[in-house]
Amino acid sequence: MKLWIPGPTQVRPEILAECARPMIGHRSDAMAKLHDRIDPHLRLAFGLGEGSRSQVAVHTCSATGLMEASLHGVGRRVLCVVNGSFSKRWAEIAQILGLEVVVLKKAFGEAASPAEIDAALSDRGPFDALTLVSNETSTGVRTPLAGVASVLRRHSQVLWLVDVVSYLAGMPVDFDTHGIDFAFAGTQKALALPPGLTVFCASEKYLERARRAKRPSYYLDAVRTLDGHVERKTPATPCIPLYFALAKQLEDISSGALLPAAEQSARGAAAWSARYGVHQRMQQATERWAARHGLSMIPAPEHRSWTVACIKQGAFEVSRLLAELKQRGHTISNGYGDLKDVSFRIGHMGDHTEAELTELLAATDEALAALAVRA
């Protein structure tokens, strides 16, 4: 069964084999070497250049844990852009933590414009931090980072916290170039690993403020986790099998091994860029397929994700389409939250290939034809 949901994504057998390696101690030299394998490639994933002072780390928790961790020590007043289920979750976490939360709300399926974010920061501020889900997995909405970055340069006191959960390894983050202060992702999306780890990146500005502040958490203290990663002494026992899997996957991406044959000579940052191109082409192919069937995408063209296609329901029941596809060996996803049963989602991310996507879309053609006959 091919898994095309927007996470967890299909995992290669080679990655699953890494999870079965003999156990090592988390305070051993072998574990330190595992960190050393991970870090250079993780910096490429976040788009850090040579000499960047931003720091990367790995945590054994879900991305929701990093949503919470990101907010410890950033200040009291937070502007949360809410345009989907996961950005809503982040705002709810901020409220649970007792922060003063102001919500910039958009309809599910829409993105907040840079002008709207600028106005909210100016008219409803001052704020200590801004939270933004760059790629709403629930709706397939991508918020271009460059436009928001230009706004944040005019609000230099605001820390910019970005959820790149289904963005990282599928689209270029360019952490420093965009002036992001904290970004995090789960490894079960475009990194195509089993669930259980998060990766994150923090700026000097973020760390300076957070170090001065009271951080009422141990396990979800991002500063403690990052310092432990740098010192090769994680605060708690990590999920070591997934560290092996992460190291292997990052090395394979940086070596170009997972690219189409014509692009496998790419190395380093060029290999990551080529990977983004594969994801973008899969997005475009999915859009063309939907248009041939008279189906509409939920997001506007300029906000369509390269990793998740969210497509409006046609003249069929979404649950029946999913069932027909399962009979043909493919699993896609229903809509999420408010969009359940009125849309369906295809997670064209991770290590899926363009040839595999062609097979999926052909199977979906068959499934729609079968539904039409029954209708």
Description:
- It is a single chain.
- This protein is an alpha/beta fold and 375 residues long.
- It has 2 domains: 113 residues, Aspartate Aminotransferase, domain 1 (Alpha-Beta Complex); 238 residues, Type I PLP-dependent aspartate aminotransferase-like (Major domain) (Aspartate Aminotransferase, domain 2), CATH 3.40.640.10.
- 40% of the residues lie in helices and 15% in strands.
- It contains 12 helices and 14 strands.
- The strands form 4 sheets. The protein has a 7-stranded mixed sheet with strand order 2-10-9-8-5-3-4, with helices on both faces.
- Strand 3, helix 4 and strand 4 form a beta-alpha-beta unit.
- Helix 3 packs across helix 4 and helix 5 runs parallel beside helix 6.
- It is globular, with a radius of gyration of 20 Å.
- The mean pLDDT is 97.
CATH architecture of the largest domain: 3-Layer(aba) Sandwich
Major sheet attributes: 7 strands, mixed
Structural class: alpha/beta
Uncertain parts = none
Q: Averaged pLDDT, please? A: 97
User: Count the helices. How many?
Assistant: 12
Radius of gyration: 20 Å
Task: List the secondary-structure elements in sequence, H or E.
Answer: EHHEHEHEHEEEHEEEHHHHEHEEEH
CATH class of the largest domain: Alpha Beta
Distance between the amino and carboxyl termini: 27 Å
Strand content: 15-25%
Number of strands: 14
Morphology: globular
For the record, the count of structural domains works out to 2
